[in-house]
Amino acid sequence: MQVYPNRFNQELQRGLKPCYLLFGDEPQQKFSMIEALREKAKAEGFTERTVFVADSGFSWSQLIEATQSLSLFASQQLIELELPTGKPGTEGSQTLQAIAPNLGQDILLLVHGPRIGKDVQKGKWFKVLDDIGVHSICYPLEGNNLNSWIQQELQQAKLNADAACVRMIADMCEGNMLAASQEIQKLSLVFAGQTITPEQVEAAIVDQSRFNVFQLVDVMLGGEQQRCIKMLYRLESEGIEPNILIWALVREWQTLTQLQDQLKSGQQIQWMKLGIWKNRQAVYQSALNRLTPAQMKHIRQELEQADLAFKQYTVVRPYVKLAHLCMLFMGVPLGHLPVME
Fold it and tell me: Which CATH number is associated with domain 5-138?
């Protein structure tokens, strides 16, 4: 059964399930759920906790033994199994299916790891454990969802804040929910039980936005100019190689060209064949609606020039040129301005 991260605590209050599958690349939500499960399990008598990491040296027989024996000092056990790749492999899959009937009254299993795809969720081991338990996938929050989460965190920290404060925290910590949580905890120590102002928030926290290239691409395709430039600034400050971004932009140009060719020939867009999942189709559609074939041709020319310059010369301000390229993808009329000096 799937439960969204913001509903996880409510699910725990209904009673413990034999198994919990928690995955995702967003650490704050995942760590919060793991900690909440640990506390709930301990309160319910699961005082023994055994931790395994299924790395290259892990023996799956250890997990089998753990489910078949309890210590002399504890009658109930919480077993935590981390899957560093998100996949248990053939032996692990068979083992997890085999131990499923042993889970329940005395043994509670937590399996966690990084972000997983639909292929993992369709695996036999995942389905067997999900049938008797709960699974939750953590994704970074954006927009209104992020604002709602920040507001909830502020309330739990006994802080009163208006919408301006929430937006400021979201803007300064967007893409890094763990940092946002830490900053709210810091605010609660200074202004416990008080109503905080935007000035107090600005003085107390620093800009801790953390983005990756894939997030930048989605924002660019969606045409969000201000966010795109902010992300570029953060990526530059984090030392991301400009060539990585050029590679990403070239890849997106190729994908958009394929999509335009399908539309031009009267075909229905084959999203999945191009590896575009449903949650990203809207941003590609936005770019398709915005960019003409002539604009795509101009972008290709500018990408070729920039790629050549980045590889053969020392570009003084590469991120200025990257910003120019991103603006072209967003349909900003900069054709009269040269990308390369």
Answer: 3.40.50.300
Query: What is the pTM (predicted TM-score) of this model?
Result: 0.60
Per-residue pLDDT of the chain (341 residues; tens, 9 = 90+): 999 998 999 999 999 999 999 999 888 899 999 999 999 999 999 988 899 999 888 999 999 988 887 555 557 899 999 999 999 999 999 999 999 998 988 899 999 999 998 999 999 999 999 999 999 999 888 888 888 999 989 998 999 998 888 988 887 776 678 888 888 988 888 888 889 988 888 777 766 666 688 889 999 999 999 989 988 988 888 888 888 888 889 989 999 999 999 999 988 898 878 878 888 899 999 999 999 999 999 999 999 988 888 877 777 888 999 999 999 999 998 755 554 44
For 52, the 3-state DSSP assignment is strand
How many other C-beta atoms lie within 10 A of the C-beta of residue 64?
Answer: 14
**Alpha carbon distances (Å) from 102 to 35, 91, 127, 137, 256:** 23, 18, 16, 25, 50
CB proximity list for 331: less than 8 A, separation 6 or greater: 223, 290, 291, 295
- Which segments of the chain belong to CATH 1.20.272.10? 213-329
The class of domain 143-204 in CATH terms is: mainly alpha
What backbone phi and psi angles, to 5 degrees, belong to 120?
-70, -45
Identify the CATH number of the domain defined by range 213-329.
1.20.272.10
Strand partners of residue 134 = 20
**Is residue 73 helix, strand or coil?**
coil
Q: Measure the CA–CA gap between 222 and 243, rounded to whole angstroms.
A: 22
Could you give the C-alpha distances from 77 to 72, 80, 92, 103, 104, in angstroms and in order? 11, 10, 20, 10, 10
**Quick one: which H or E segment has residue 60?**
helix 60-68
Q: Are 15 and 40 in contact (CB under 8 A)?
A: no
Q: In what order do the strands lie in the sheet with 48-53?
A: 48-53, 77-82, 107-113, 19-24, 133-138
Q: Is residue 99 classed exposed, middle or buried when 0-12, 13-18 and 19+ CB atoms within 10 A define those classes?
A: buried
